[in-house]
Amino acid sequence: MRLIKLALISIIALFTVLSFFSVMMPSTVLVSRAVDIYAPSDSIKLYVSDLNQWVYWVKGMRSKDVTIKSAREADLGTQLLTIQTVTDTSVITIWASKKASTQVSTLQFIKVPEKNLTIVQWQFVQKLSWYPWEKFASFMNDKILGPMMEENLQNLKSLVEHPHE
User: Fold this and answer.
1) Helix H or strand E encompassing 33
2) pLDDT (tens digit, 9 = 90+) per residue, 132-141?
3) What CATH number matches the domain at 26-161, 3.40.50.1240, 3.30.530.20, 3.40.50.720, 3.40.50.12780?
């Protein structure tokens, strides 16, 4: 009986400590990457504002699990991807997960006309609940999303700068 009581008290104490630390952690996670593309932003926006064009630069979009429903909506199996807003300077997408928190993704186009350069910045923002396991799991967001974002931005750069290769 003493052993069960000790185990129960230990579990409660551990949960309390984890909850305390999770309250101190931020409830918004942002992962961001950027690439310089030597092309006007209009030519980049053609590939970014239409999900049918994402198959040419986003690696996972060619998967058999992906169903592109329209130029603005795709079912990725575990997520529904929707292009919410397209402007001259950005494309905002919503990644609604069936299992985790929804993420908002923004692709911004920063023009540098004197160099015929556009800086494309891609960021994911995720709002987290207070749950300790969700906040601790968010530490992996940069390690998971970062390399994928870098690879896809490099694919976009190659596609826009060298369209016929």
Assistant:
1) strand 28-37
2) 666 666 667 7
3) 3.30.530.20
Answer for the pair 145, 137: CB distance below 8 angstroms, yes or no.
Answer: no
User: Do 51 and 81 meet the contact criterion of CB atoms below 8 Å apart?
Assistant: yes
pTM: 0.80
Q: How far apart are CA 40 and CA 118, in angstroms?
A: 6
38-41 own/partner pairs: CB under 8 Å, 24+ apart = 38/115, 38/116, 38/117, 38/161, 39/116, 39/118, 39/160, 39/161, 40/111, 40/116, 40/118, 41/88, 41/89, 41/109, 41/111, 41/118
Tell how far CA 131 is from the center of its chain: 21
Residue tagged 């699990």 (tokens): 65
Interatomic CA distance for residues 47 and 71, integer angstroms: 11
